[in-house]
Design a protein that fits this description.
- This is Acetyltransferase.
- Pfam families: Acetyltransf_3.
- Keywords: Transferase.
- It is built from 6 helices and 8 strands; from the N terminus they run E-E-H-H-H-H-E-E-E-H-E-H-E-E.
- By secondary structure, the protein is an alpha+beta fold.
- The protein has a domain of 121 residues: Aminopeptidase (3-Layer(aba) Sandwich), CATH 3.40.630.30.
- It has an 8-stranded mixed beta sheet with strand order 1-2-3-4-5-6-8-7.
- A hairpin with a 4-residue loop joins strand 4 and strand 5.
């Protein structure tokens, strides 16, 4: 089982007991804009997802890890998605749940652990992130980790009745 340890947090694989946490996250309409979700998920669907979450990244093309504090509190999720081993790249997304958990460096540490894991163990050449143009917190987080803005997707996401731009950020591993 995959566990990545940092100074203040650790990342672990999804477990069946994460059902209620995932259910809350996936059904929080405030987060839908970031995750491109348009409809709620049932507990049944999430339970099925958790039953297959142990599968290898090479098989399912994604890896979702739970961000936990040293005292076992679940803080959020970090994902590698669109895993493409032929081109050695993947997308990365992160969510720290609960405003009280933000601004403590948990996201920075989680992103650092996933970047290191991606380059050292998965031998990726490139990580990318899609970030809403008005998401200053995520922009700062990814730029601090060395990601560079390489493009703007104009009017990419319809949020309510407003089209919003999305930035494409990349981090290329220099060997």
């Amino acid at each position: 089982m995959l566990t990545l340890k940092g100074e203040n947090i650790y990342l672990r694989a999804l477990e069946p007991e994460d059902l209620d946490f995932i259910y809350r996250i996936e059904n929080d309409e405030h987060i839908w804009e970031m995750s491109a979700t348009q409809t709620p998920y049932s507990k049944f669907l999430i339970k099925q997802y958790l039953e297959h979450a142990h599968k290898d990244i090479y098989e399912v093309k994604q890896l979702r890890l739970v961000i936990c504090s040293k005292d076992e509190m679940v803080l959020g999720l970090i994902d590698l998605f669109d895993f493409d081993p032929m081109n050695n790249r993947a997308g990365v997304g992160i969510l720290i749940a609960g405003k009280e958990n933000r601004g403590h460096g948990y996201g920075t540490e989680a992103l650092q652990l996933v970047v290191n894991y991606s380059f050292k163990h998965l031998h990726l050449h490139l990580l990318y992130a899609n970030i809403a143009s008005d998401n200053a917190t995520s922009i700062k987080l990814f730029e601090k980790q060395g990601f560079n803005k390489v493009g703007v997707k104009k009017d990419w996401n319809l949020v309510g009745d407003v089209y919003k731009d999305e930035f494409l950020y990349q981090l290329i591993h220099v060997h």
